[in-house]
Amino acid sequence: MDVITTVKEMKAAVKAVKSRGETICLVPTMGYLHKGHTDLMRMGRNLADHLFISIFVNPTQFAPNEDLAKYPRDFERDRALCVEAGVECIFHPSPEEMYPAGYATYVNVEGITETLCGRSRPTHFRGVTTVVAKLFNICEPDVSVFGEKDYQQLAVIRRMVRDLDMGVRIVAHPTVREDDGLAMSSRNAYLGADQRTSALVLSRALAHAADLVLKGERDASKLRKAASEMIASTPGAIIDYVEIVHPDTLQFVDFIDGSAVMALAVKFGTTRLIDNTVLRTIG
After folding, report:
1. Which helix (H) or strand (E) holds 157?
2. Partner of 53 at 20 to 30 A CA spacing, among 33, 82, 97, 191?
3. Among 20, 39, 21, 19, residue whose Cα is nearest residue 29
């Protein structure tokens, strides 16, 4: 397995693959890999001739008061997991390689970046779309896999790819969960034992809302209230948002008609966790 750290070397590796008429799947990550990531990789392994991943903690998607400096990193552990998952190449650039002195160009997707996480993290998605656009330009993937846990991110990337005619197929992988229901996240490592237990309310609240829909509830405000009350009654949980949105536009909905996405963000101490589920009616 190759580990490449410069844009020039990565472009050369891609050129060699493309010259043979072969395809590339890219799984972008920020490292500190877990089973959720390796499941994405295993899916990607079946979607193209070659599986590449990027490991890059992207500074432009962190606000000054966020956790860039302490974001967990363990490259040797990540490397071993990549070998097990069948990765052929890791692109592992430095911040200086991706954003050299004088860097001044950013990609901004409007509208769907202004709801949900975009309200409390207004610069976040500009950083995400910028780095993903750069990774697509450098690695030229035919297909790229993203997890549904970051539902807004997935929707934003899909919109960017459509609007900018990027020609890469975006494939979604279902949220990967621990046995007790907690969505897998690198930030779970920040949780203390009590916080880890309290965080289970996220998946329970989502499941409760989905059950209410199956039983006939369609009023989004009542569903938000039911989920919010469950979370607010949990020790240490501080709600950022609990919202129900259209699956594609991410605009807030008042009534469940067919399907909608309930998305939430909740803090436990200084650790902010996100999760979501699709609410579907029957018939």
Report:
1. helix 151-163
2. 191
3. 39
Right CATH for 2-173 from 3.40.50.620, 3.30.429.10, 3.40.50.20, 3.30.420.10: 3.40.50.620
Instruction: Respond yes or no: is residue 124 known to be catalytic.
Output: no
List Cα–Cα distances, 33 to 36, 81, 189, 201, 230, in angstroms: 8, 7, 11, 24, 30
**Helices 7-19, 124-139: crossing angle, 10 deg rounding:** 50
What is the rounded CA–CA span in Å between residue 145 and residue 43? 8
Q: Which of 34, 37, 208, 246 is catalytic?
A: 37
Domain 186-277 homologous superfamily, CATH? Pantoate-beta-alanine ligase, C-terminal domain (3.30.1300.10)
Q: What is the pLDDT of residues 100-125, one digit of tens each?
A: 999 999 999 999 999 999 999 999 99
Residue 216: other Cβ atoms inside 10 A? 8
Q: What is the distance between the alpha carbons of residues 37 and 272, in angstroms, rounded to a whole number?
A: 19
